[in-house]
Amino acid sequence: MRIYVRVRVLGTRNLAVFRDARRWASTNAKDSYEGLKCGVEIHLQLDTKTKLFSNSRTSFQATPNDHVSYFDLALPGSQPILNKHAVLLALKAATALNCKIHRRSMFDRKHYFYADQPAGYQITQYYHAIASDGVLWLQRRDGISSRDKLGIRITQLQIEQDTGKSVYEIDSDKTYIDFNRTNHPLIEIVTAPDMKTPQEAAAFVHKLQILMKHLGVSTGEFQSGAIRVDVNVSTNGGKRCEIKNLASINDIIYSIRAEYSRQLNQVSEGRAIESVTLGWDGHNISVQREKEGSLEYRYIPDPELPPLLLSEDIIRKTRENQPKLPDELIDELTAAPHSLNLANAQTLLSYGLVDYYYGIYKILEEADIKGKNAANWIINDILGIVPVGEEKLLPSVVTPSRLADLIIAQKQKTITILTVSEIIAMNVIKYFLQNQGDHRATAEVIDQYQLTAMGDSNILEAICSNVLEEHSDLVELVVSGKKPSAIKFFIGMVMKNGKGRFNPQDSEATLKRILTEQHPEYANSQK
C-alpha cells in the first residue's frame, strides 16, 4: 500500500500560554454578540499505550499502518477487548468535571460509511454514557470579560473510538488511509449552549486542555490531533449550525465570529436558518452538508460489548485520589508565601512543573534564600533552552537539588552572575538532559567547567593592570573625566580575560584603586 503522511511543523513555544486568554478577552471586549449561543463537542484522545478495543499500540510516529490489529481493520471474526486504563482515564476526567458518574453504561454503534472507518460504524456511548451533568467553572483570569464567573454545563461525557487518518495526495484525486489512529480511545465531552461570546468558548476549551493535561488524561495538543473541537452556533433562539474540526483556539474564535455574522446576514435578508454542518478553512465559513440526525446514524446497542459496570469502590477511589486541580494550584502559587504573578503561576502549571517548583522552593528556603527565585529560573532560563516537548524530563534529569544548588551558588557568590549566564550558554543544563546517566551534583559540573568564582586578589590585580596598560588611550579619557563610562569596558575586559570567574563588583573596585594609585587626579573626578 502506498502511503503519504502529512507533517505539521510546530510553531515557537509561548512560555506564558495563559497570556493568550487575557488577549482573547481584550480583543472581544467591545464586540456585541447579542442573541449568540454556543455549545462545544470536544474529542480528546486518551493518553493510553494501547487502543480502546485491541492490544495494538497507540503511536502516531510509527510507519503508517504499522500498529493495526485484525479488530482495527474490522476483519470478520475479530472481537473487541475493552481497555480498562481508558475507562479509568475517563473516570478521572468525569470526576474533575464534577459529573454524575453512572455505574452502568453501554456501548452503541453509530453507523456511517467512510473510508477511514472500516467497520462501517463507530463504537460510542450515545444512549447510556459513562458520565453526565457536570460543570466547569470559568473565571476572569481564564479569559472571560463579560462575567466574573461562568459555569459551563457538561451534558454528557462518553467513551468512543477514533477513526483512521485520511491523507490526500497533492495534485491527484487519490486518498490514502493510515489506520494507526483507528480505534484509539477517545472521550467526547458535550456541553450545553452556555457560551455567549467567542472568547467564552475559547476560554472553556483552553481551560479544559490544561485540566486534562494536568490530570494525565490527554496531551490536549491541537498540533497532534489529540484534541478536536466542533462548535454549535445559534442566534436568537434559531436552529443551530455545527462548525466541524476546529484545530486551534484562534480557529474557534474567528469561526464563531464568521458564523454569527453569516446567520445575522441571512436573517436580515429574510432567509431562514437551516441546520447545516459547516467547514472552516482559516478564513471563511462554508456549508458542507445538511446536518445529520440521530435517525440517520441508526444508533443501536453494540451486541458484542456487555454493559460497562463500575463499582462504588472504584468511583470512590477515583475521587479520593484526585490531585489538586489547576484552580487550586493557581490560588496557592499567587498567594503568600509564594506570591508569584499570575503569568508565572500559569506557565508552571501549563508545563506540569508545579511540583518541580515546590521542590526547588523548599531547598532554597532551607538555605535562607527566597524560594520564589525558582520560578524565575525555571521560566526565564531553563525553559528557554529545553527542547519543545522535553519539559517533562526536567524533574528527573535537572533535579530540584541540582537547580537549587546552582541558584544557591549564584546567591552566595560561589560563582559570579556572569558565570551563571555562561553556565546556561555552555549548555550545562542541556548536558544533563543529553547525559541522563550522569548523576553528578551541580558542584562537580561547576568544577569540571572551571566556573568557580576566583578570590585570589593578586591574580585579579594582575589582570586589571594588564587591561589598563593595553588600553592606555582610553585610560586618559577616564582619568580626565571625558569618558567616565569607559570603566564598564574595563570591567568587561577583566571578566573576559578572567573567563567570568571574578566578581564584577570586586573587579570594578580593583580597577578604580589602581587608577587612583597611578593617577591621583582620578580620585578628584570621582568626588
Poorly predicted parts: 1-19
Helix content: 40-55%
Strand order of the largest sheet: 2-6-7-10-1-11-12-13-14
Distance between the termini: 84 Å
Largest sheet: 9 strands, mixed
Total number of strands: 16
Name the structural class.
Answer: alpha+beta
Strand content: 15-25%
Oligomer category = single chain
Mean pLDDT: 86
Give the overall silhouette: elongated
Number of domains: 3
Given the structure, what is the number of helices? 20
**What gyration radius follows from the Cα positions, in whole Å?**
30 Å
EC number: 6.3.5.-
Subunit structure: Subunit of the heterotrimeric GatFAB amidotransferase (AdT) complex, composed of A, B and F subunits.
Catalytic activity: L-glutamyl-tRNA(Gln) + L-glutamine + ATP + H2O = L-glutaminyl-tRNA(Gln) + L-glutamate + ADP + phosphate + H(+)
Function: Allows the formation of correctly charged Gln-tRNA(Gln) through the transamidation of misacylated Glu-tRNA(Gln) in the mitochondria. The reaction takes place in the presence of glutamine and ATP through an activated gamma-phospho-Glu-tRNA(Gln).
